[in-house]
Amino acid sequence: MEERPKIKLELTKADKVIECIGWALLLGNWVIAILSFSGLPESIPTHFNAAGEADAFGAKTNIFVLPVIGMVLFIALTMLNKNPHIFNYPKTITNENALSQYSNATRMIRVLKLIIVFVFGLLLVMTVQNANGNVDGLGTWFLPFFIGLIIIPTLYFLIKSMKIKASG
Questions:
Q1: N vs C: which end of the chain shows fewer Cβ within 10 Å?
Q2: How far apart are the first and last CA of the chain?
Q3: In this predicted model, what pLDDT tens digit does every residue of 103-131 receive, in sequence order?
């Protein structure tokens, strides 16, 4: 493996805003789970099939699984984002293009973190609504919506990476 430059990236204003929104959503997920807990029935939906229908149920303590998984993913990606030199890139990383490639890749991870906590929050709200009988399932829109939220930004940042010249 080639030796890639290690660069300490400074966060731009946009990066800071994305991070703050992500942390706020993460905290919001916990607030929703904690505030909803006492009003939940003893059995809640714990899994939804591809059609958005609840197909597994468990104890109401399972409501905390969503914020836990969201938090673990968010923190793991935050830690990973500190080492952009270890990421996979579609182009060779040189001293000249490292800053541009690393900035693009870390922004992509930052946006994906935001999407992940948003989707886990949406799942949390929908689970609470399902458990309380206010809605039935997630709806057929949920899975395509989630896939689009992941694929569209990933493609955007991949195309942007491909356009970054080897010389900078």
A1: N
A2: 21
A3: 999 999 999 999 999 999 999 999 999 99
pTM of the model: 0.90
Contacts of 51 (CB under 8 A, 6+ apart): 137, 140
Q: Are 135 and 129 in contact (CB under 8 A)?
A: yes
**16's tokens:** 């800071």
The total of structural domains in the chain comes to 1
Q: Is residue 3 part of a domain?
A: no
What's the pLDDT tens digit per position in 27-61?
999 999 999 999 999 999 999 999 999 999 999 99
Q: Is 53 exposed, middle or buried (0-12, 13-18, 19+ CB in 10 A)?
A: middle
For residues 53 and 124, what is the distance between their CA atoms, to the nearest angstrom? 15
Say if 4 falls within a structural domain.
Answer: no
Whether 168 shows a pLDDT value over 60: the answer reads: no
115: containing domain = 13-163
Q: Assess if residue 43 is contained within a domain.
A: yes
